């Protein structure tokens, strides 16, 4: 069992004096220097001028030598500038009024169709008030349904917006400013140009500032650029690009080390942060795939309804009513509008909205907030998931992974993927590593009164990781500062690339101990000995070779590597009363003892590897888009199932050839540097997106936006995950933007359509599965719901064309659509997948293939191209009239119709198979069954179908001369017709539940709410028919005999038989294709490290 190290008495170590070893340090792998392209024409040039000139421009007094003595602006000038330029805040996104939001919901095509149907009912009422008196209520109900449906959608959107608002940072940020020669704390919103700001470790930079004095200052720009390494800030600058200028600090950056004074040069929307937020405002994701498909379905229904109404208006007028003159036109118009209304599935909009609302609520219980209802399904439809690295895939928390000391490699946490021995705090060399990690550091805990895993570390990411690691393995960590007080320090700087401290830590030969950490190649050059088994031995070529191998191994994994060294200062050279001084440099920086190497990484979040593996198994391409270094990004990608194959460079290395000799089909993984993006051609983009494993590194916000747009142009439904301000433009443009709640910026949350409340990337996979399930259930629900349209429409046509008695009244049609059908169709929301893993083994419903790309580009050439404005040079979208005119003309070409019916691999919400089922197959079966039941009622009363037609022509069932007996007979027949549809639809319910399996077995009982819906629907149906007094409202009869219902029951059994045979035949003709298994996926759970917030493996010293 490993034990925690406790420091108290001086550690015994044998020190051997040696000659200085002239070993040449190997050249370490330096950090690649980048020169990213500017996203916009940034107007920041102040960093190129002396600070005195900038101060003069802003009329402010500063003291560059003694910054604390700067006078700053006077209060009057600051107040005047605040009044002139406004507060230092980002302009909030344009807010749409609640009324306009409601109108947006109300004017969806489906609701407009309902409103049109309601208006047409009132037109019928105006045409014939006496015969259509019931339309007074029908029209009002249809319009009310549209408003209720819009209200449900509006309520859900407002509720999500309210939840989101509660997550935004409502506490106003404050900052220290020098005004009138005094330091004071003011709200950051009150800052003005020319203010002198003081920022220290832990503070957020409140505006864009030019630094004129600082001490060891570092800032974290990850929220703006995605760069995880802390950036040094200095008064001296040698960079032209403002984003890389060392004397600038930007609004929203975090000071992770040191402190500094800066002059405010940009505020509010003019800051870099504000300009990135401006990119977001200019983007629009457009309609979701589900919205587009529902709109297409409405167009299909409207086209069928209008065409049917026109055709049968002409047939009715010329064949039946032509001899009746103007009254004939009135009767025919009445009939045509009735046919149009009969086609409209009144309950379907409410069904779709409620199904999505239920799914959104279910996702909220899994910590996924959906801002837009259709976003639930969009997540299931995505074909490409572009994800940020820092804070999304990784924890944004540097963690010690491996230690090399005394020529032994140790793994800091349990994982089969890690090399080295299990970590033990008492192993040779490890106590010294822990001592240097804890004492040679500026990082500190924010408090000491809570357990270590619950504390926050103040300091940069690397030192924070070392501090957490040391604290987890040193029992008396909180006392080390008192046991071994620091007497001297040389902070880390970019010139030395090391940090050094000297402590009052006694040993056998003296009082002071020097500790150092830094870049491995620099540290090794300063050492002449190496610590092996608690003894300093001369550093040899063999040791240097072992160092080279270990350093290369750690760096190859994308780890950040530090070297540790120490020196036990001898008393004869460094007496107890010595005062170390930077100016005199009376401290050693050579002949140190090399202690070891420590590697750190920003580890993947728990569950990320399995989540990405499941995404890829589901046919979804996952790519990383990060601002971090390509090597780091690729190393993380290989740990989390994102990259499994060789890159072009790896193939060339294995074959020993140049990159040009490697064919494009010989590798499947590609890593693209941000500098290449602006110069990529369309062929380059096609090549990149043809690869299954893609990483974009060193990207800017503009690059991320370009990547999303190019992917969408190929037909990808793109999901983007991110947490930083730099992710927000891509989040807004994507088909579905997914932001993080805990680590995410307010700008990213506002831009996204979905928010992971617990920052758990694995929730995305649950959302994808939920999205696929809700699409499947929506499709089943629509298939079930519109099946009853044929038993409603065909009898109305026969009523006019063949003069049969009216089988079903308009009021009963409405009761079907908004009664038992609505109750039963809602239960599809709780249907489970037909198999446990089947949904996530199916390919995306709109796969992107070379064929689909070619077809998309060919169709794009048929669309009306945008016009280029001669003055601005910007693209201007063609007017709606121009687009309609172009579309109308194209309808008269053969190419249009050939492409309209061209085969596709896409699965849409309402396809030919669904329409065939509803209108040509089960719809016809139900129509025959219901009509047979209807005429059997007449036949049992002694009236044959031919006789019934004759009596209808004589108006003996509903006219003024109709007897009560005939009226009751018609009411009983209509009641049987109504109940017959209900009974057959109950069987159709189970037939529609199964797309891949047969409609019987235990799966039929997996959703008990179906039976609750059936019971409620049956109760409502029988209430309408048999409840005394109700028949006067709905025209039913409580004398309807149950025996007639045996006919629809027999037809219901036939529907199940038909569905079974249909499924068996389709299995043979169109077998379901599952995704190919991806070789190399590692689905083992991602291990939690000792720094996981939920559990510390090393807490009890166990390994």
TrEMBL record:
The keyword Calcium does not apply. Keywords: ATP-binding, Cell membrane, Membrane, Nucleotide-binding, Translocase, Transmembrane, Transmembrane helix. It comes from Entomortierella chlamydospora. One of its GO terms (molecular function) is P-type sodium:potassium-exchanging transporter activity. This is Cation-transporting P-type ATPase N-terminal domain-containing protein. Residues 1-39 are annotated as: Disordered. Residues 16-26 have a biased composition (Polar residues). It is a multi-pass membrane protein. Residues 45-126 form the Cation-transporting P-type ATPase N-terminal domain. The chain crosses the membrane at residues 102-125, 137-155, 297-321, 333-356, 797-830, 1008-1026, 1042-1061. GO terms for cellular component: plasma membrane. The keyword Isomerase does not apply. It is found in: Cell membrane. Its main location: membrane. GO terms for biological process: intracellular potassium ion homeostasis; intracellular sodium ion homeostasis; potassium ion import across plasma membrane; proton transmembrane transport; sodium ion export across plasma membrane. Residues 29-39 have a biased composition (Basic and acidic residues).
